[in-house]
Amino acid sequence: MTTETVEYIRYRIPEDRSAEFLSAYTHASAKLAAAPQCVDYELARCEEDFEHYVLRITWTSTEDHLEGFRKSELFPDFLADIRPYIENIEEMRHYKPTAVRGRGAAVPTLFAWAGGAEAFSRLTTVFYEKVLADDLLAPVFEGLAPEHAEHVALWLTEVFGGPPAYSETQGGHGHMVAKHMGRGITEPQRRRWLNLIQDAADEAGLPTDPEFRSAFLAYVEWGTRLAVHFSGPDAKPPAEQPVPVWSWGAAPPYRG
Length: 256
Fold this sequence. Notes:
alpha+beta, Alpha-Beta Plaits, Globin-like, 2 domains, 10 helices
């Protein structure tokens, strides 16, 4: 379980001091940004009552905040910036995330944006036709099971935010990794795999917008590099892990 903790600091700032308060935190935030113990931060203002603010800071752990940041060279300057507003604090506590979490439908999953299960089924069908006809990759997939393309489609479906059918029928990340152990995949083979799946994505009609394709390519870069690592002679199987779920990353879908 993650050790990250979320600190909430609730302020009540008179409206005639709001400009100076925001200016002070704009200056103080540079110390948070420079702190290795700080994951992220955000200062929000209440819409219903402009005098109320909430500062949310995610720390790598409560100890890292109290023993790391507060005892660091950054803290005195941070404290000097916010000291005039300490008396306006109504709450300052750390909170641990619970298992109740998730995402709404405002931003579609990569799975939904791609066109759902049918899109990934088309992708793997086209892709493995190319693989078996390729002089560099065909030897790696010699004796390919008839259901292999279907299993990879289930894997990609789950990775990109669709139903967890791969986990339910095949296993987690460790099961997929085990498929590559001892295969001795080379960098040229990895690069060819990467190129062919991008060609297959074009032919299968997957979205071509830059946001989707950058996220798609980010995953296949990560996944193929892991495959090369775990196919090596000295690789050790990883501990059992869930199937990774990929997101849009830095660029969510553009909807003009």
